[in-house]
Records
---
Amino acid sequence: MLALVPLVAIIALVALVAAVVWIVSRNEAEQARVKLATDALWVEQTLRLQMSVDEDMLVRQALEAASGTSSAVLDTRTRLHIASNPEILSVVWHDGSGRRTRALPNAGAPGDDELVALLAKPGARGARPVYGDVADDGRVTMGLALPDEAGFVTATVSLPLLLQRHVPWWIAEQYGVRIRDTGGQDFAARQLLTPDPGNPSHTISFDPPLRGTLLQITAYDAPQAIRSALLFGVIAALAAFAILALAVLFGSAKRRRAAEAQLRGETAFRRAMEESLTVGLRARDHDGRILYVNSAFCNLVGRESSELIGHSPPMPYWDPAWLEEIEARHRHLENSKAVPQSFETHFRHKDGHEIEVQVYEAPLIDATGVHRGWMGSVIDITDQKRAARLAREQDETMARTGRLVTLGEMASTLAHELNQPLSAIASYAAGMTNLLGHKELDPVMLRDATGKLSRQADRAGQIIRHIQDLVKKREPRFLDVHLDEVIVETVAFLNADARAHRVLLETDIQPVPPLSADRILLEQVLINLIRNGMEAMADKRHGDMLRIRLHAQGEHAMIEVVDQGGGISDEMTGRLFDAFASTKAQGMGMGLKICRSIVELHRGQLNHRPVPDGGTAFLISLPLASREQGNDAWAA
């Protein structure tokens, strides 16, 4: 029973407040109705007064016309009245037959023909003006006969202008004022909003002076109803809230115990998740002091959490060989904004072996939104780096093997090419020996022969050095390279091979800025593509020309090697750059794969397309990038 006392008290309080609100709301509604009726009567009196003023103007016009006042004086007084009472659209004078004699303004507003015909009848006399019917647009005409049947004068009044002029702003802000007929058709209205039909309104007959018209004033809203509904709603909400609070109070102890048990379970579950992760987690404050580590991080560095938590830099797992770089990164992280960061670094295991790790640092934000430090995810990439280095060494070996295979295939051609300068050297040496045997030695002839011998020796040396560069094991070196020179030297190196294949090498070289590249690797790509083209033209050809073009396209240098061979079958198109895919019977299928790897090492692309007249075009696209980008690509 005691538990029901608060509920009964709340219900009694709500009932008492509701009663007070109902009484107050009823009084407010009654006051609003009284105020509406008072304002409606005030508006009616104001409009009737203004209509009387306009009627008096007609009466004065008639009396002054009968007393002999000139038309000019009457017109001046009429203009003054129209200027101060803009609801008067026009004033018109008629003769006894109803014909207009003059009007102000000169054109005059359309009048009421029925009223004019009525006033033109003999004996249509009266002391006050007579009103016609109200037109649909709110115009109404009133007329008054002049004494001695000298005619009559009419005035057209605009009811919309009448309301606009003489209904004050403080009325218009509260009510909508309308003049309408008994059928509900509006002739004139002054309202800022469209009142709701259900809002309080007050209607007064406006006949006379206007036959069959009503003056209606409607409030824009019913504030007392809104306030009452709002108060009742608030009271009901408070009562419901109080009852709900009691219900919640009764069950709060049970829910609190359940929440605590669930919280303990969630904490244990999250701890189990953190401990089961293979990614090391590490939380640090802005000074670098470790706040938290999970078991994966401890296993990574070979230390217990008690050794690490609370430890400040330098950390025991930092690699002494990378200490300067790690400290510089730590200082940068202290001064940087709260944005995620990623970097690679080196740790030292407790047993002494080196660990390569990838660290992802994210801002550590507490429950209040304050940046407390950094949360790091540490991934061991030692095996991944080792595999990448092994793959790079294999690519180097494959590229070198490809160069050796290419030179082996060109051995006879290179021997012939090397034999030419050697034969020339032998010939010049024999000639010089003969010259030295003559008694009269000609120094000019001897100097000429010596120069030719030296040039042939240089030519032989160039061939040997070129071969040596191709077969020598070396690290890629990215330097500024002029592609036009690379193409010219490569074509000169392959001219002998081209003659053996009965192929003419043609170059179309346009100016291209130098780019960062490894000259020997690019020569290897060009040698492979040009020799592939010559071999493709050996069996089936559509011409004897193999073209090498160089031009710039946007931010890229484009090299095209276009042969006139039999082309590439549809079956081979999709796997042309795969390992061990070859269009040659004796080919290993590694040449184009090596070429693509070299081009991608330079951040470029190697593609091919068929030539409409027959043959294949290989396209090399190389970015005009900086040397640092090339070196970064190789290091990656």
---
Amino acid sequence: MKDRGITVLIVDEKSRRAERVGSLLEGLCERVYYAQSAEDAANVMNRVKAPLVLTDMMAGAEIDGFELIKGLRRQYRAARFVMLASSASIDACKKALWLGAYDFLERPVSRESLEKLFEGLNKSFSLSAPDPIQASPAGQTGSERSFYFEGVKSKSPAMRHIYKVISKAAPTNLSVLIEGESGTGKELTARAIHMNSNRAGNEFRPINCAGLNESLLESELFGHVKGAFTGAATDRKGLFEVGDKGTLFLDEIGDMPMSMQAKLLRVLEDGIIIPVGSNKPVRVDVRVVSATNCDLAKLVEEKKFREDLYFRIKGVSIVLPPLRSRQEDIPDLLYYFLEQACSELGVDTKDISKNCMDILLSYPWPGNIRELRNVVRTTALMSESDVIEPGDVPPEVNSMPKLSSPKPEPAPKLLVGQSLEEIEKQAIESTLEMTEGNREKASRILGIGERTLYRKIKEYGLS
């Protein structure tokens, strides 16, 4: 081990069991703290900011292990979370990975499994950084590991590229323009940029530019003084001032009136706002992330959007693909939203039949992720069986013309004519890529021993 000066937090309702795991950490870390509930864990993290948290599933607790990971990850972005579970609960633990956990360990936890965990962490992260919780995420790895879209790590090459763009753009102060159809996750992307930036500890303020008329939009953005207009009974700060040192998300910026575009441009260039009804300038420091479902370049050509503002907000450009073009992500998204819906609605966990999955994969999802989430929630509530069948899906999904290619990639056809060795090599190579080189995870997914995997890697020259 090269990094032994770290602090570890173990969260478990059973203190003796937690202390046993703690004893196995001797020599692997400097100090171990214990917590018996999510509330205790939050208090400990507030004091010591442990870079590594090992948590039990805590099934039945008011806040279980999954919610603990979900909540603490928002506040302690650089911390790594590992779920501890019995062999019977390993499949359920995959949900923890969807929520951003680094890994999960099977109970009873062994010294060997902990050593492998630390070895993997040391290869990917600097756990003994002076202040790992406050360090800029992009400065830690520069990889897309930190970015999960709706809690699901994407398999789509287009989305993986977007993760890399986010990881590079987030720590800068460059303006970002996010383009994409409605429901593709533009605000989610903006929040990812904010949460992985040096401004994450400050405000993230979204506003829909299409939902307000010009005077209201100006007041919302720049604020107003008492008596500036009818109804202005007191001074009121605008989003630029309230969000100082933070991020302002301008959604549907393509619908912003031309006169407001000129005022926004001046703020972006000078960093100064003037509240409505005032003549006193106020200096602000706000990063602007904009989004649109319009073709802004075309609006510029049509003189409906200012060219100078267009280039000012387009410091970094991100174009989100529609869900129909990244079908490989649909199964994971479906199960993620299904788990979420069943938990929130208080219904039994459900599965999706193969026939139903085929229908959902062939549906073009014109409303993208937003529509998919709503369909899953409705279906989870209305289905009376523990397996969702085609008849449980809303009629509009069944009646909509289907995509010509229900499967994202014609993988079976690519296997025709290949030897078993070639197929095995491809499977190992793809799994290693998906697990980012983590051989222990890859061996578990492939269903083979780690030694066998190591031998195959050498045999096929994949190292």
